[in-house]
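Pipeline run #58 for the internal structure catalog. This entry was flagged by the ingest filter as a single-chain record with no existing model, so it goes straight to prediction. Upstream metadata was stripped on purpose; only the residue string is passed forward. Reviewer on rotation: M.T. Logging verbosity set to normal.
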Amino acid sequence: MKTIFKKGDRVFDYLFGWGTVISYYKSFTYGVEVKFDNYGRKESFTHDGRYDLKGNRTLSHTEYTLEGFTQREAIEESTPIYVKDRDHSSWVIRIFSHFNEKGLPVCYADGNLSGCTIVWEEYSIEKPKC
């Protein structure tokens, strides 16, 4: 299972607000424990950010409203990531710049940290299995 959240991450949940991941247990169904800023409340989530196993994913690295929910990994600028689009059948490594307004990754066109950028359809931080 892909790890989205790790100890120390700042996270947001629509019901509880901002908090910090205080523990992560791979072997537990609700293995992501978060201490929320309001009232010091602690809540547990599934590894993919669900408060209820049958519910929607609500734990996120970014604040959201129900109109603009997104759950993507926090990636720092200049991080090498794997990317591809519909025209490319294989994954390539590019240097991450930012996410665009549609939530797609934007990477530098060459190995430099400046200059032209390209928007990609898919991305992965870990080497994809394909």
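catalog note: Strands lie at 10-13, 17-24, 32-36, 42-45, 80-84, 92-99, 105-108, 117-119, 122-124.
catalog note: The chain has a mean pLDDT of 87.
status: ready for reviewer M.T.
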